[in-house]
Amino acid sequence: xxxxxxxxxxxxxxxxxxxxxxxxxxxxxxxxxxxxxxxxxxxxxxxxxxxxxxxxxxxxxxxxxxxxxxxxxxxxxxxxxxxxxxx
Length: 87
Prior knowledge:
Elements: H1 2-20, H2 26-50, H3 59-77
Helix pairs in contact: 1-2, 1-3, 2-3
């Protein structure tokens, strides 16, 4: 069971990598992965253990958390001047 939960966590990290790929350096990817592992387990504990959400196969926690974490990191690393830039 522990190995399976670790694979779920790795899946969430890989989903987040897709959102920031090409925008960040390899060191930033490693930093993001380390931070995301901690955040994933806090989210997993809160949603599945504390709120007793029945997540069959882990799809809800993995995909939703990975996607939103990746989007928030992508927004955070984007340059401030790029938002209002007109091509």
